[in-house]
Amino acid sequence: MRVLLRVLSPLLGLALAAAGALLAVAVVRHWTGRAWSLPDWSWVDRPVLVLGASLAAGGLVLLVLASRAGVAQLPLDDPADGVRVVTTPTSLARVVGHRVRAEEGVLDASVTASRRKVRVRARSRVHDEATLRPRLLEVAQAAVADLPLPVRPKVSVVVISPKDRP
Amino acid sequence: MNRSNRVERVMAAVLGALALLVGGAAVLLHRFDVDRPVLDPVVLDWARRHLLPVRLGLLALGLLAVVLGLWWAWRAIRPERHPDLRLDDVVVTAKALAAAVRADAEQVHGVAGAKVSVVGSPALRLRLTLRHGADVTRVWRELDDRVLSRARSALGVDVLPAAVRLDLAKRERQRVR
């Protein structure tokens, strides 16, 4: 999405400039008595629907593009004046995942993270949820607390174990 | 860290929202069979009565769109500046400064790779890739203690603006043979 926005931006800029120039020329022509004749459309005419739908669809595409072209960032504390450090939610998930996977009895774990929440989903064959969950929660919370995050996300842990199956 | 695309995103979002509003309104008016001219006589009458301000307003709007559009296009295609630094009689090239800071950053324990750009005079942008399992807090601390403070003292400045992004590398999948 970033690349697409980078490619489209000059074209969109030129399109905006062209539209502005067209409007300015139309006003000047009207002022000098050589006004362009505009189509006498009513709202029920088909070209209005086609133009309106195209405009709305294009606008929606642009909105989606603008919202998806950013990189999610997690700010860390500033270590010095003028220094801004950020990381990504993916990196935070990897930090927590690394610590959780190192725990005894954890077969695998998947972690998703955002600015506000860290969700851990661990699999174990040897421990049930009641035994393992408190320990993993503590480990995951400690991993988050060790980071220089100005806002600490909430941590939740789910353990999936065959021992919990009835 | 990549060059920021915030302006491009805001411009695209504003243009998109405007297009969606105008286009959506046209579709709705068509759908509800509003049988009135698009150039509404009431609006045209009002515009005729206020001809000068309307003309001036539309002209200003058109020129504003031209300026904004050209600025947006130029901003999107211009190459990023990497200015050299002048220290008394010596000129330090942006490339040399970036290479020196990168070499220092790659010495930090846990850093697998670093990309450094000089984006102001002086201002830096760093993107550090950390090894899987690296101690992020230690890297964060050493980044200022060892890398940026050294750059500050070498350049003789108290404050060296820097935007730093830390990325933790993926864990390597273990193969079972």
UniProtKB/TrEMBL annotation, chain A:
Keywords: Membrane, Transmembrane, Transmembrane helix. It holds the Pfam family DUF6286. Residues 59-159 form the DUF6286 domain. The chain crosses the membrane at residues 48-66. This is DUF6286 domain-containing protein.
UniProtKB/TrEMBL annotation, chain B:
Keywords: Membrane, Transmembrane, Transmembrane helix. It comes from the Bacteria. The chain crosses the membrane at residues 55-74. This is Uncharacterized protein. The lineage of its organism: Bacteria, Bacillati, Actinomycetota, Actinomycetes, Pseudonocardiales.
